[in-house]
Description:
This protein has 343 residues and is an alpha+beta fold. The chain has a domain at 37-103 and 188-335: Glutamine Phosphoribosylpyrophosphate, subunit 1, domain 1. The chain is 30% helix and 21% strand. The chain has 9 helices and 13 strands. The protein has helices at 7-16, 56-78, 83-95, 140-150, 158-167, 181-186, 260-265, 268-277, 283-297, and strands spanning 21-24, 39-47, 116-122, 128-134, 155-157, 207-212, 218-224, 245-247, 253-258, 301-306, 312-313, 320-326, 332-335. The strands form 2 sheets. A 9-stranded mixed β-sheet has the order 1-13-12-2-6-7-3-4-5. Strands 8-9-10-11 form a 4-stranded antiparallel β-sheet. Helix 2 (56-78) packs antiparallel against helix 3 (83-95), helix 3 (83-95) packs antiparallel against helix 4 (140-150) and helix 8 (268-277) packs antiparallel against helix 9 (283-297). The longest helix is centred in the N-terminal third of the chain and has 23 residues, at 56-78. The structure holds aspartic acid. Aspartic acid (ASP) binds next to strand 9. Residues 45, 198, 204, 206, 224, 226-227, 236-238, 244, 257-258, 260 line the site of aspartic acid.
Amino acid sequence: MYAFPLRLHGILLFAGAALGWACLPGTALGQDAPSSETALVIHGGAGSISPDEMSDDHEQAYRSSLRAALQDGNEVLQNGGSALDAVQAAITTMESDTLFNAARGAVLTSENTAELDAAIMDGKTRNAGALTGVRTVKHPIRLARTIMEESYHVMFAQDGAEAFAEQQGLDLVENDYFITASRRSGDAPGSADPPASAAEGEKFGTVGAVALDDEGNLAAGTSTGGISDKEFGRVGDSPIIGAGTYAHNASCAVSATGQGEFFIRGAAAHSVASRVRFGGASLDEAAQATIDEIEALGGIGGVITLDRDGNMATPFSTQGMFRAHVDTEGDTSVRIFDQGSGE
Ligand code: ASP
């Protein structure tokens, strides 16, 4: 067993030396309208999906999965739980759902394995936990939270992340658990083709959430299998604080999806926050400008964003982005193709 410095140890050491739409009332999620100003936005990935190419059944399946995750996260908020707990709850639900490219249902590497990345960030403290390249941790978002809360570190990779998960008593599974028949058939090993972009065809499904709790705190989280046919050891933007995930009460909470390499180069999530905090931009302007900048670099994708006033912006440069929200009025929306986050 590896010996990891726990948070306490770290602190002692230091002292010594993150088509269409449906708008439904809050009650449609089995929740009464919130008594306080809470909000939640989730995404299930961005990609080149057109309404014409998606069957009604497929679309309804995504909508219902998004609603389920939104409900789980919102329940936490309605019960007075923290933004972090809401983000974790919504993402945990999507990680178990094979429709999404996160944990169970993850896309495969060039070696036909699932390698998972995740991150979570607390907007109040800017504490964060992240991991990359794990193959056996059932719920990467839980590991991210545990890293944030139980270690002195922010990010663990591969074997070290798995050893830490084991030490912390998290659920471990065989890599096969993550691999679904549809991913296997769509991901031929040893393909001579370059890695498929995260934003092409069915190759999307990264999940993320941003939340605002009744104490006015923000949180963000992202979980993914990355991009199809990625090389062994490839790290995307999702687990990189400031690229795919970021939260700070002073600005906003952000979770990104799309071609990770470009989101890393554009420090996308932090760029949204900086435009708000230092540039005086509205959340809408900041989020759109960042997506435009990523596009100028050559990449496509989207972000979900939320601030302490309950403002939300969800721009994307792909044909669609699976997303849903419940706002401070308790109104919910599930959208795939059209731009905008409001009704
Ligand atoms: N951004 C993720 C990555 O590059 C993939 C995605 O969002 O679809 O790993």
